[in-house]
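Pilot study result, target chain (62 residues):
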Amino acid sequence: MSALTKGDTMSAEDIFKDFDNNLYEQEARQRWGNQAVDESKERHAAMTDAAKKGVHAGSPGH
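Predicted structure:
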């Protein structure tokens, strides 16, 4: 939060580090299976900060 008040930039990782990315993980595993969820998480982890920022910018509420 201090970065925002000081006008500093933050990486997508820093912005979402305390965000609960697992909010829908259980439901996703039930609907699409462990392999699909694990592969999706691996793809997300391998993305650059810029790519993650683009993905999150397209999310509802952003």
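One observation from the pilot: The CA atoms of residues 28 and 51 lie 22 Å apart. A full batch analysis is planned for the follow-on phase.
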